[in-house]
Structures are given as structure tokens and as C-alpha cells.
């Protein structure tokens, strides 16, 4: 006869007593001030941030969330999927963020691209090549990705002589943290390939973990539980070990996807994340200029 499970075994509590990363929930102004005052040290330079990652991870939703928080008004410049089927974004597109008045923009841009699908090895290789070309500034805005072949050098969307503005200064992997087991091995391999290329170019890399509200009911109840959630910390560690992005470069966010009103704590996470991305990207620009 097998032992019956004891009625007295207590379920592990889902939250740590203390948050493992400190965040000042009352100070979203600090990050906002940095973002509002940010200016690359080279006149006319723009900081280019490229978002990539698996299909349906929330890349377009992050762009919409950033624009919404900065404008203090719900916006959806980047079309996001209304479900997680298929692959919604097909084009390479640059999003400028409006600052205050029309035709006045922040000196950073966010680039959206087609998501990585769990498909044949050959297609994943093509995806990696396309991302590499984007990193080096060879992909022109409006290019429609073709999963069957990489952007060729004679395509009208191939930029033969990219300027510093066309090149990517911060690479962001967007990861849906709500999936159990997080990512198949082949996706991990693809992300590692992309990361290797970015590292060779010296480009800083950050990961954004989306759908934290789906991954953890305690976070859904109160976003301030983000750094107390055991499941989230576990998934961040798992991802960090697999892909090699250090924990201090992984940022959980809850995108605005179905909401029509703001949540100050969600804003804080989004602004904090953007602040770190800009700051890493700016360090890279400065290093490049010194070389
Ligand atoms: N609950 C929740 N849903 C989210 C979050 N971020 C994105 N979503 C939803 O996830 C789905 C996919 O989001 P998208 O922004 O279109 O994802 P994507 O990475 O741009 O997808 P592709 O363009 O297909 O590669 C949409 O239904 C979003 O509303 C989040 O933080 N929380
Ligand atoms: Mg998209």
C-alpha cells in the first residue's frame, strides 16, 4: 500500500516575504524625468532599440504601452494581435514616440519586427540572418519579412550604406513569461545565435518578460508583488541560465493590452524598463564614439 499524501503538507507560499529587487513604486517620476531629458551626446543622433522574440510575446504591445505611458493616453501605433494565433507583425517598422507637441519626437525609436516562429531549422536561420541585418542597419523601414528567404542585398529594402542612426544600439528580447517551461530548446538556440551576433557588435542586450499578470495570479492581483513572485523569479533564472542574459538585464512588465485606464504600478515597470534600455544604449553610443 502506498503512503497517502499527508493532509498536513502545506503548499509552498507563492510569494517571498521580501522583494528580491527593490523598486520605488511612488517614484515613476524619476525614470520619466530621465527619459524626458535624455539627449544623445552627438547632435542629431537617435537611439535605435530593436525588439525581437517569439511570435505573440508582446513586442507590439510593449511599443503601444511605452507610447501610451509617455503620452498619458492609451495609444496603439503598433498593431498588436487580438489573440496569440499566427504571427501578426510582418514588417520592419520604426516607431518614433511623440513628445508633447505633434512633430516633436523623443530621440529614441523602437523597431518592431516579425516574431520568431517555432518552425523548421532553415526558417529560424533565415530569421537570425534578418535580425543580424537589422542590427547592422541594413533593413529599411517597411520591409516585409519572408520566412523562406533572408533579405537579399539587391532588394530595394536593403540599405547598402547604413548610417549610425540606422544601426541598432540596444537589442531587446521580448519573452512571454506565462508559458510553462518557457521556451523550446530550438527557440533558446535561436536567441543565443542572435545574442552572439549582438555581442560581437558590442550591442547591449536586455530581455523584457511580458504577461506577468497571466503567469502569476498574485501579480495580477497586485503588480507590486512582481519581485516577490517565486514563479517569476524561477522563470527569470531559468531564462538567464539558458540564454545567458544576466538577471540584472531582465525586466518584467505588464503591457497595456485590454485596459482602457492606467495603472500607476504598471507604468512604473514600463518606465523603469525603458530607462534601463536607454541607459544601456547610451553607454554603447558613448563607447562607440571613443573607439
Ligand atoms: N495579459 C497580458 N496580455 C498581453 C501582454 N502583452 C501582450 N499581451 C497580449 O498578447 C497578444 C500578443 O501581443 P502582440 O503585442 O501582438 O505580440 P507580438 O510579439 O507583437 O506578436 P507578433 O507580431 O505576432 O510577433 C495580444 O493579444 C496582447 O494583447 C501582457 O503583458 N499581459
Ligand atoms: Mg507584433
Automatic annotation (TrEMBL):
Gene Ontology biological process terms in this record: immune response
Stated name of the protein: Interferon-induced protein 44
InterPro entries: P-loop_NTPase
Amino acid at each position: 500500500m502506498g503512503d497517502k499524501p499527508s493532509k498536513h503538507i502545506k503548499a509552498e507560499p507563492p510569494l517571498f516575504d521580501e522583494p528580491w529587487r527593490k523598486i520605488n513604486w511612488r517614484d515613476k517620476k524619476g525614470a520619466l524625468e530621465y527619459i524626458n531629458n535624455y539627449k544623445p551626446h552627438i547632435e542629431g543622433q537617435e537611439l535605435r532599440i530593436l525588439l525581437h522574440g517569439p511570435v505573440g510575446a508582446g513586442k507590439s504591445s510593449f511599443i503601444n504601452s511605452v507610447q501610451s505611458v509617455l503620452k498619458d493616453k492609451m495609444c496603439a501605433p503598433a498593431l498588436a494581435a487580438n489573440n496569440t494565433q499566427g504571427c501578426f507583425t510582418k514588417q520592419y517598422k520604426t516607431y518614433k514616440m511623440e513628445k508633447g507637441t505633434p512633430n516633436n519626437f523623443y530621440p529614441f525609436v523602437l523597431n518592431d519586427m516579425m516574431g520568431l516562429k517555432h518552425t523548421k531549422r532553415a526558417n529560424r536561420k533565415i530569421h537570425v540572418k534578418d535580425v543580424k541585418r537589422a542590427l547592422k542597419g541594413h533593413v529599411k523601414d517597411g520591409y516585409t519579412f519572408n520566412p523562406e528567404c533572408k533579405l537579399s542585398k539587391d532588394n530595394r529594402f536593403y540599405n547598402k550604406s547604413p548610417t549610425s542612426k540606422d544601426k541598432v544600439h540596444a537589442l531587446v528580447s521580448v519573452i512571454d513569461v506565462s508559458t510553462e517551461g518557457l521556451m523550446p530548446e530550438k527557440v533558446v538556440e535561436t536567441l543565443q545565435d542572435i545574442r552572439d551576433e549582438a555581442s560581437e557588435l558590442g550591442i547591449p542586450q536586455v530581455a523584457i518578460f511580458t504577461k506577468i499578470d497571466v503567469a502569476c495570479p498574485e501579480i495580477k492581483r497586485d503588480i507590486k508583488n512582481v519581485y516577490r513572485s517565486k514563479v517569476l523569479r524561477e522563470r527569470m533564472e531559468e531564462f538567464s541560465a539558458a540564454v545567458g542574459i544576466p538577471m540584472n538585464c531582465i525586466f518584467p512588465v505588464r503591457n497595456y493590452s485590454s485596459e482602457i485606464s492606467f495603472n500607476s504600478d504598471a507604468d512604473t515597470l514600463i518606465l523603469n524598463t525603458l530607462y534601463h534600455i536607454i541607459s544601456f544604449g547610451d553607454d554603447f553610443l558613448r563607447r562607440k564614439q571613443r573607439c
